[in-house]
Amino acid sequence: MTDLKRLYHDLVRFETELWAAVDARLRRDCDLQLTWFEIMQLLDHRPGLRVQDIATEFVITVGGTSKVVDRIEKAGYCRRKPNPHDRRSALLVLTSTGKEKLGLAAPVFEDELERRFGAVLGGAELDRMATGLKLLRAGAFGTEQLTA
């Protein structure tokens, strides 16, 4: 039987190491931090989200999300546009500069994931891992909260 405490330790440490490695690579090769990349990637796939939507997607605070979005906007990678359904909020879209930066960063991100996952695990193992993580997240947090 698998030692669940050891599994927890390995999973948490791996996530921390993975985040640090991908972040370092994106910063080095693209001058873009992983936090920004994640938000920009989401906006590329789903333009017109609100800060609240991004916070919900990544299970982080609205205040923290707003601060990161402010920085991304200041860098010229996204912009706010009026929300036609709610004047109290704005919708976020990538700028052409943001799309260009994301286009440079995406292959670097994918290459780093290949190095950390694909070069170590085979296809069947990766499929089992993906299925297991989905099941764990759904069981722990309920499928209605799973969006990321």
Automatic annotation (TrEMBL):
Residues 4-138 form the HTH marR-type domain. SMART domains: HTH_MARR (SM00347). One of its GO terms (biological process) is response to stress. It comes from the Bacteria. GO terms for molecular function: DNA-binding transcription factor activity. It holds the Pfam family MarR. SUPFAM superfamilies: Winged helix' DNA-binding domain. This is MarR family transcriptional regulator. It comes from Brachybacterium saurashtrense. The lineage of its organism: Bacteria, Bacillati, Actinomycetota, Actinomycetes, Micrococcales.
